[in-house]
Design goal:
This protein is an alpha/beta fold. Helices cover about 45% and strands about 15% of the residues. It has helices at about 20-25, 30-40, 45-60, 65-70, 90-105, 115-130, 150-155, 180-190, 210-225, 235-245, 260-270, 305-320, 340-345; strands at about 75-80, 105-110, 135-140, 160, 175, 200, 230, 255, 280-285, 300, 330, 335. A 6-stranded parallel beta sheet has the order 2-1-3-4-5-11, with helices on both faces. Helix 1 crosses helix 2 (about 30-40).
Amino acid sequence: MIPAPSRDRPGETVGRRPTIVDVARAAGVSKSTVSNVLQNSPLVRAGTRALVEKAMDELNYVYNRSAANLRGADVGLIGLVINDLRNPFFTEFAASAQMTFARRGYATVIANTDETPAVQAQVIASMIEHGVSGFLLSPTYVDEPEGLEAVRRAGVPAMQVLRRIDARTDAFPFASLDYETGGRLATEHLVALGLERIAFVGGLENRPVTVERMAGYLAVMAETGRDPVAFHGRPSRAFGRDMALALPAEIEGVICFSDLVALGMLAGFAQRGVRVGSDVRLVGFDDIEECALTWPQLSSVRCDVARFARESAEAMLGWIENGVQPPATRLAPVELMVRASSIGSPP
């Protein structure tokens, strides 16, 4: 969120570099008027220029001419903010979105927030100052229910994808994948194989995305009279490996929060001497490329994140170019890819 104004100097921002929007607000003029002052336009009246210059002095505003030159070039600039670029799922999303923007002549500024709210606030503020035309955000979770207030104040179009941190989807449309159906498909698959003791492994407890991915699992377990059991933790290979080494022997099937957890479990089960596909059945979530390349091949809920990224980027461009705001909420379909980790290797 934008820091509160200082009590000592009206309109002064604290904790970040002031932007052209802050100057306009402090001077009581439009952003375009401030731009005209910065460009020494003769169209600005002397009194108005004095107000703007006074606001710039009070805010310690520093004109970023290189950013202004970029804004003045014949190129649109999109801010692409990603919560974890180390995860192949989000990397593929970012790459596909960036290429979609590039094909339409837009440059992309990509930032990895590393699941850190402070970094996210910093990069968003910087991108606003550099004049991005719009934001496509797969955000880091924050404590505030209105986590995109800084973007709202700047008046920049923004879409939330894969994660929602601002409840105002009328202002910040939300697009994601049908995770609940994915969890249902995976659980129904293991139930159809005759398994009784099925666990859900991975994901930080009570995080919205964890709740969404578990919802279908919990529903099917309840409908079939089975007792759910969950082991929560960071969605990483290391957590998956550790869980495979410690998993109770009575567990017959596992649905993982993500493929990274499932791939870690493959390694842990191999170390433990447990045969995946026969001793225990394993299903991942996301269907990253490695799922079809590992051994045994990993069953996974396919989200087709590349297509989802293209569609999200195209929706963002439609908003910027044509004023057509995307729907408040959209869920893209998923499907289950069945492989040897859940049904065993062919004879």
